[in-house]
Amino acid sequence: MGNTPFLDKLSSTLAADRLLTSLDECTTFATDWTKIPGRAIAVALPRATAEVQNILRLCSEFEVAVVPSGGRTGLAGGAVAKKGELVLSLSRMNHMGPVDAAGRNVRVQAGVTTQAVHEHVAPAELTWPIDLASKGSSTIGGNLSTNAGGVRVVHYGMTRKWVTGLQAVTMQGEVLELNQDLQKNNTGYDLIQLLIGSEGTLAVITEATLRLVRRPQHVMTTLLAVNNLPRMIELFANAIRKTGFDILAFEFFSSRCLETVKQKLNRQCRLSVQSPYYLLVEMEGQDSASLKTNVEDWLEEILGSGFVIDGAIAESSADKKQFWSLREGITESIALSGPVKKYDVSVSVNKMAALIADVESFLSSHNFHFDLYLFGHLGDGSPHFNLLKHSKASAEDFEKDATLFESRLFELLKNCSGSISAEHGVGLLKKDWVTFSRSAAELRLYHSIKDAFDPKGLLNPGKIVDPQK
Ligand code: 2HG
Ligand code: ZN
Q1: Which of 153, 159, 331 is the best mutation target for the ligand 1 pocket, counting ligand atoms within 8 Å of the beta carbon and taking the most?
Q2: With 0-12 CB in 10 A as exposed, 13-18 as middle and 19+ as buried, what is 270?
Q3: Is the Cβ–Cβ distance between 90 and 206 less than 8 Å?
């Protein structure tokens, strides 16, 4: 295991139940949903900010690298301990303060799950607008560290819009108490926004004050079968112009995704018609009667268009859950099908159809050893390209083909000013490709920022950028 003096000192500062050292536990905590194999010297599970301070001071003193960790649902390897680091899991810091109804905020510790926050604030008719397929396991610290997106970005924007205050601990063990609950505080650089999305490379987020909104009261969910991708984008443009409802989610998936969810997770789909694409659209209205009329009118209009070939409205909360389970089950059903490579990219909505057409024509010009699973957040210009290895293909052929695919995809993205990571972050998996989305001048500043916070490069090493010194 190594580094006995460090572990001795660590175990003398943490209660026995807050330090895990067995190989099994260390291996589990060293990885995330990417399943990149990891290796950790130990796992620390602090319950309070003061304990995080002590751990980080000790790591600085002994020059031990640290990987901050939450629900480990990341898909870019941002929480993977690759080289025997200490995993600093915030999962036991899961206290939530009272809801401030007038200030529309709530203070929570980093280890609280996204879903627990939703449930905690719901009785006050409020919600935290970030909604993710992984909400039951993903934690606030991880959501903030990766600036998570999810299924309601089209209406509410990304995580960084929904944070009022932040508490974080630096590698030197200093607590940064950033803003707490003020709605206005124009006093210079915004370190909150710098830390959000920094993937635990600058400081460890321990608490946050989250901005809340009124919980949507009247919501309708529809499932549509559509036969043409560019027309799906026109449909989105048409839907957001409507005055009878607001679009809360506008998600799409291919028929291959739907078939896999049905097969692997044993789910049913209300639409029996076969179609290349499906849309899950969620709308909010002023009151249930007018919302129903407006949604039905809209459906009638688009069903007559020739490219929306079938549609269904969720009539009950069970229906709604079932519609969403088709979209939210995609990641799991693909994972159950074999080795997969994920590309979570971003492009302006009006360039999305052209990007997908270019990708598809590239795919058809090769005999690749994988199938493409295409789905994602149409309303945000954020498609997910998942490549699933053909069952009979060798791992080497799959790797080779995926590398070819990713070079082409990233080239295409660069040409249309897109981003190589829309919402999953850079982590380990996208680090070598950051130059496709960030300029040399930006990266020089990234290095200076990293050096200012963590000159020894001990905090989440290997993610985003390396320190220069
Ligand atoms: C989603 O939109 C997540 O469901 C996961 O971002 C995407 O598995 C993926 O590629
Ligand atoms: Zn997504």
Answers
A1: 331
A2: middle
A3: yes
On the question of pLDDT at 296 being above 90, the answer is yes
Q: What is the pLDDT of residue 469?
A: 58
Reported residue count of the chain is 469
Nearest CA owner, ligand 1 atom 5:
331
Dist. CA 319–CA 306, nearest whole Å: 25
Whether the predicted model's global pTM rises above the 0.90 cut: yes
> Is the predicted pLDDT of residue 464 greater than 60, yes or no?
yes
Tens digit of pLDDT for each residue in 232-262?
Answer: 999 999 999 999 999 999 999 999 999 999 9
| Chain segment 174-186, per-residue pLDDT in tens | 999 999 899 999 9
Q: Does 135 sit in the ligand 1 pocket, CB within 6 Å?
A: no
Looking at all shown ligands, the one closest to residue 343's CA atom is: 1
The answer to whether 130 touches 162, Cβ cutoff 8 Å, is yes
Gap from CA of 95 to ligand 1 centroid (Å) = 28
331 lines ligand 1 (CB under 6 A): yes
CA-proximal residue: ligand 1, atom 8 (nearest): 331
Bridge partner residues of 19 (DSSP): 44
Give the C-alpha separation, 10 to 4, whole Å: 10
C-alpha to C-alpha distance for 79 and 94, rounded to whole angstroms: 18
d(CA 85, CA 458): 9
Q: Is 449 in the pocket of ligand 1 (CB under 6 A)?
A: no
Measured in Å, residue 376 CA sits from the centre of ligand 2 at 6
Q: Which ligand is nearest to the CA of 133?
A: 1
For ligand 1, mutation pick of 34, 75, 429 (most atoms within 8 Å of CB): 75
Handedness of CA 22, 335, 343, 73 (dihedral sign): negative
Give the whole-angstrom CA distance, residue 263 versus residue 255. 12
pLDDT tens digits, one per residue of 371-420? 999 999 999 999 999 999 999 999 999 999 999 999 999 999 999 999 99
Cα 80 to Cα 315: distance, rounded to the nearest angstrom: 42
Angle 463-465-468 (CA atoms, 0-180°, nearest 5)? 135
- List the one residue out of 436, 442, 428, 424 whose CA is nearest residue 145: 424
What Å distances lie between residue 159 and 33, 36, 98, 203, 291, CA to CA? 20, 25, 21, 18, 28
Q: What is the mean pLDDT of the chain?
A: 96
Q: Largest alpha-carbon pair distance within the chain?
A: 73
Q: Is the CB of 384 under 6 A from ligand 1?
A: yes
pLDDT of residue 1: 54
342 in contact with ligand 1, CB cutoff 6 A = yes
Q: Give the pLDDT confidence of 264-279 residue by residue, as tens digits.
A: 999 999 999 999 999 9
